[in-house]
Design brief:
By secondary structure, the protein is an alpha+beta fold. The chain is 49% helix and 20% strand.
């Protein structure tokens, strides 16, 4: 059984690709075997499982009716667990697939941007606020997408300031509710945004 699960774990890791790791927990021996991108949780291929992890897995297995559990451990980490029991109900193994979903979120953001960038000429005056909101969103996505295509890490302070600078040049911050939208997409607080914006405007003076 164990050798079969090791081969299965290796297959799943090869199938999913570099954004995921597959961890086989041998709960009987309290050992783990990691395949794929172990940078996600920084665990080695074969090492001793810690007691807390074993206890948590056993507790969750008891509360899992179909043997499969999907959780979001952090904003960018999706963990799917499959609890494997013997015919007598004893839990011996757990296969855990940890996925870095940030690339998928970036694809989703781009698709949202691409599908919503067109604005019909026949938009009524009643939907003016929505039109402005869509234009603002598209401008923000466009700047983020531009930097990602240029292989720039948009998570750095410098990149965020560069994006804010270009959005400032385009008058985005003159639009109502734009600051909240920029903060959400750049994952920064409003205080940080105002500090960056002040730095940008002082540099232009």
């Amino acid at each position: 059984m164990k050798q079969m699960l090791l081969q299965l774990s290796e297959f799943i890791a090869a199938l999913i690709g570099p954004t995921a790791e597959v961890v086989l927990h041998d709960l009987s021996e309290e050992k783990i075997y990691v395949y794929g991108n172990n940078a996600i949780t920084s665990r080695n291929f074969s090492e001793t499982d810690d007691e807390d992890t074993v206890r948590i897995l056993r507790d969750r297995a008891e509360n899992c009716e179909n043997g499969i559990m999907i959780e979001y451990d952090t904003e960018n980490l999706r963990s799917t667990r499959c609890f494997i029991k013997d015919t007598d109900g004893s839990l011996h193994y757990c296969i855990c697939v940890n996925q870095n979903i940030m690339p998928m979120q970036e694809i989703r953001d781009f698709v949202d941007y691409f599908l919503n960038q067109g604005i019909p000429d026949s938009v009524s005056t009643e939907s003016g606020d929505n039109t402005i909101d869509s234009l603002t969103t598209n401008l923000i996505f466009d700047e983020i997408r531009h930097m990602k295509y240029a292989s720039v890490d948009t998570g750095t302070r410098e990149a965020k300031i560069a994006i804010i600078s270009r959005l400032n040049e385009k008058g985005v911050f003159d639009v109502r509710n734009s600051t909240a939208k920029v903060c959400s997409l750049l994952d920064i607080s409003q205080a940080t945004l105002y500090n960056y914006l002040k730095e940008v405007r002082e540099g232009e003076a």
